[in-house]
Amino acid sequence: MTDAAGGRLAVTIDAEASAPPFEQVRRQVVDAVADGSLTPGTRMPTVRALAADLGLAVNTVAKAYRALEADHVIETRGRAGTFISATGDPATREAQLAAIAYADRVHHLGLDDADALALVEAALRAKR
């Protein structure tokens, strides 16, 4: 299954597991955020799309998303969708949000990743 941006979102349901399906979804998303597989700003599939991919009821996936949102792992931005939240201490969260905004802007401007990274590296090396 892929996330809304086309990246790989590895969530599977084990029918034999003692944990209910919504908890399996929640736990796997938390683990993917912890290991860096899902990074802040990553767009999540819609509840309906994930439910269809996993063969689960929409309400089951919605329950997992509500729990993830309550734990500040994901955030819903209205019609824009659901995204992995910025995490960590306040300085790290602020830096993650700035990085997401920068990435969005350079993609909008048509710069490739190498050029965008070179600009950041130059800015970090500059004496301020």
Protein architecture, described:
The protein has 5 helices and 3 strands. The chain is mainly alpha-helical and 128 residues long. The protein folds into 2 domains: 21-84, Winged helix-like DNA-binding domain superfamily/Winged helix DNA-binding domain (Arc Repressor Mutant, subunit A), CATH 1.10.10; 90-125. α1 crosses α3. The model has no long low-confidence stretch (mean pLDDT 88).
Write the layout of secondary structure elements.
Layout: H1 21-34, E1 43-44, H2 47-54, H3 58-70, E2 74-76, E3 82-84, H4 90-109, H5 113-125
Antiparallel strand pairs: 1-3, 2-3
Helix pairs in contact: 1-3, 2-3
Order of helices and strands: HEHHEEHH
Rg over CA atoms, rounded to whole Å, is 17 Å
Oligomeric state of the chains?
Answer: single chain
Low-confidence stretches: none
- The coarse overall form would be elongated
N-to-C span: 45 Å
The percentage of residues in β strands lies in 5-15%
Biggest sheet features: 3 strands, antiparallel
CATH topology of the largest domain: Arc Repressor Mutant, subunit A
Question: Order of strands in the sheet with the most strands?
Answer: 1-3-2
